[in-house]
Amino acid sequence: MHPNLAITPDYSLRQLNTFGIDARARAYLKVVSTADLGAVLADPVLAAMPRLVLGGGSNLLFTGDFDGLVLHMCMQGRGIAGATDSHTLVRAAAGENWHGLVQWTLAQGLGGLENLSLIPGTVGAAPIQNIGAYGTEIKDVFHSLTVFDMATGETRAMDAAACRFGYRDSVFKQSGGAGLVIVDVTFALPRAWRANLRYAELAQALDQAGVRDPDPQQVGDMVVAIRRRKLPDPAVIGNAGSFFKNPLVTGEHCARLLAAFPALVHHAQGDGGEKLAAGWLIDQCGWKGRRMGQAGVYEKQALVLVNHGGARGADVLALARAIQADVAERYGVALETEPVFV
Ligand SMILES: Cc1cc2nc3c(=O)[nH]c(=O)nc-3n(C[C@H](O)[C@H](O)[C@H](O)COP(=O)(O)OP(=O)(O)OC[C@H]3O[C@@H](n4cnc5c(N)ncnc54)[C@H](O)[C@@H]3O)c2cc1C
């Protein structure tokens, strides 16, 4: 194996995934530079191994051991990268902690990322599923990113069009993104910042706290407070956030469901389609707070599956399948899972 790479064989991944699943990797490498990725490619043994690019492990479920090389993205660095007439450009390396970056931008007086406060994981993974919360998605503040192509060994820039962002989706989750490792991301933060309070829960919370005309830091602080109330802390109970995506259905399908279930929670999408609240559907099927073995549904938010301690990936999957079957039977809606299964 490559003499300059500190490869560790048979590595425990338990501390590297927020579900706390006890899986092992055949080999592990802490990646601190693009040169490390080039060195992996240059080594015939390493280059031939199956690869898993790992950030903070907060959006994946290990369903067994990983018989390959884990590339743990630990590249650090962040700063102002330039400016346009209307935006400040901020660039951060893939291994930077996402929430750390959000806080740093707020400390610089730069607004734009505040609604995405406290999402776990790394900067490099944020574009993968176009992370979103409280009415903002990465694509709204995105400028460009740099990838290292494991197929060719080349480094190149990609703009928003090339990333093909969608709801919890991007080219990196499709076949066109295979082998691309994100090494840094650049954000365009607006100089003429305006609070995004489209999400009613956030607007109401600020209002109740007596905060009128909030600045970016105040919005970020409120998002943190709401999330701490609602979501389980992975340091206390293993989870990967929302386990299911909110399903998109046609207006016609939604109208039929509303006739049978008048309390159905739905949001018009502007294109005639409707987004349903997966958490509401799961809750109505009686799953909130229930457990199957060591896997369970979080008592305060039915979208989140949790590890009560010692659950295997297969236990979490079995629970997810049972929930999907119930929702499909009662509502005729197919729930898609959000985390990546490894
Ligand atoms: C409590 C909790 C709350 C959450 N809330 C939200 C939320 O509000 N909104 C939201 O969108 N998500 C949320 N998530 C999901 C998760 O935090 C995000 O998807 C996050 O971006 C994942 O980052 P990560 O570094 O942990 O990625 P990982 O889990 O390590 O990886 C996820 C996927 O990205 C790939 N990947 C990682 N880094 C790179 C890279 N540099 N280049 C190429 N591929 C890469 C991996 O191979 C894997 O396929 C939440 C999770 C938890 C635990």
Automatic annotation (TrEMBL):
Q: Enumerate the catalysed reactions.
A: UDP-N-acetyl-alpha-D-muramate + NADP(+) = UDP-N-acetyl-3-O-(1-carboxyvinyl)-alpha-D-glucosamine + NADPH + H(+)
Active-site positions on this chain: 168, 242, 338
Name recorded for this polypeptide: UDP-N-acetylenolpyruvoylglucosamine reductase
Tell me the gene name. Answer: murB
Q: Which family does it belong to?
A: Belongs to the MurB family.
Source species, please? Massilia glaciei
Q: Which UniProt keywords apply?
A: Cell cycle, Cell division, Cell shape, Cell wall biogenesis/degradation, Cytoplasm, FAD, Flavoprotein, NADP, Oxidoreductase, Peptidoglycan synthesis
Grouped into one coarse class, the protein's main location is: cytoplasm
Q: Where is the FAD-binding PCMH-type domain?
A: 21-192
